[in-house]
Amino acid sequence: MEFKLFDLGLTDFQSAWDFQKNIFSQARQKEIICAFILCQHNPTITMGRQGHKENILVTKDDLARLNIGFYEIERGGDVTYHGPGQLCVYPIVNLAYFKKDINWFLRSLESLILETLSELGIKAETKPGSTGVWVGQEKIASIGIAIRGWITLHGMSLNVKSSDLANFSLIRPCGQDIIMTSLENVLGEEVEIERVKEILIRRWYETSNFARIRREY
Amino acid sequence: MKQVILPELGENIEGATITYWYFKEGDAVKEKQDLVELATDKATFNLPSPCSGMLTQILIKEGDTVKVGEVLATIEESPA
User: Fold this and answer.
1) Is A174 exposed, middle or buried (0-12, 13-18, 19+ CB in 10 A)?
2) Cα(A192)–Cα(A5) distance, rounded to whole angstroms?
3) Neighbours of A207 (CB within 10 A)
4) Per CATH, the architecture of A3-216 is what?
5) Cα distance from B64 to chain A (closest Cα, Å)?
6) DSSP string computed for A126-147
7) How far, in Å, CA of A177 to CA of A138, rounded?
C-alpha cells in the first residue's frame, strides 16, 4: 500500500483546498489510498459545519482590512485560524483500507501529533470529548475532518511558531474560550518547521497507526 | 419501501447530528447518491442512498440527532 506525500509549502487556503479535492478524486478512483498534504497558509479563518458566526469576534470588513481570508468549509467543528508558522496536515485516507471508524481516525491523528511532540521533548495530552492536542490547559493542535465515502478530507493544524498566535484572539477557537499555544512557546526556543515536518513524516511512515496497518496489509 | 439507517460509525460513537439534507421529501434519488450530511464531534460525513427511487419521508430533521441503527428516512424504491 503506497503512501503519498505532498508538501505545498506556504499556500493560500483555496489552492490547498482545491489540491485536496484533486487528491480526493484520485482516492475515489482508488489511485491513492493514503496521502498526506502538508502546507502552511496565508492568514485565514475557516468555519466548519458546526460553526457559529458569533465565534468570529471581528467584522468581515476587519478581516479584509487585516488581509485575512475567510472560508466556510465542509469539515466538522467550529471556527479556527490558520497562518504562517502553523503546520497544516491534510490526510486524504481511504478508511476502507484501514478501519471504517471515525474515532479510530481522529485518535490516530492525535497520537501522530503526540508522538511528534514527544520526540521534540514536549509532553502533550488529549482530552476525552475534546478532540485535539493539549499542553496543560493550552491547545497546540486542532483537528477537523470531513469524510465522504469513507475517504477523509481536511485534517489538523499544529502551531509551531509563536509569531502568529495573536490572530487567534480574533476568534473563539472551536467555539470555546481556549488559549492556544505553540511549540516555540512551550519550548522557549526557536523551532524550524522543517524539523517538525521531518519527524511527523517519519512517524507517519514508520510508527503511526497508519503505518502499522500498512505493514499488515 | 427501503429504510435509510444510520450505520456503525466507529467505537464509542452512539449517534450523529443531521447537518444537511441534500433532498426534500418527494424528490427522486439515485442509488449511492449522497442523501444527507451528518456530523459527530469534529467530523462530518455523508450517507448515500441505499437505492434509486423517491424520498418519501424524512424522519429526522436538520439540527436533530440520530442514533446508530435508527431510521432517518424512507425511500420508495423504483422498479429496476
Assistant:
1) buried
2) 19
3) 13
4) 2-Layer Sandwich (3.30)
5) 13
6) EETTEEEEEETTEEEEEEEEEE
7) 10
pTM of the complete model: 0.94
Nearest Cα residue to A116 out of A97, A133, A99, A137: A133
How many pairs of residues across A and B have Cβ atoms under 8 Å apart? 68
Instruction: For chain A, list residues with pLDDT below 50.
Output: none
ipTM (interface predicted TM): 0.91
Which is it for strands B43-48 and A138-148: parallel, antiparallel or unpaired?
parallel
Comparing CA positions, the residue from A154, A185, A151, A188 lying closest to residue A82 is: A154
CATH number of B2-77: 2.40.50.100
What percent helix, strand, coil does chain B show, rounded to 5? 0, 50, 50
Residues of B in contact with A77 (CB under 8 A): 42
Distances (CA, A) of A167 to A13, A45, A50, A170, A181: 16, 9, 21, 6, 12
The pLDDT of residue A1: 66
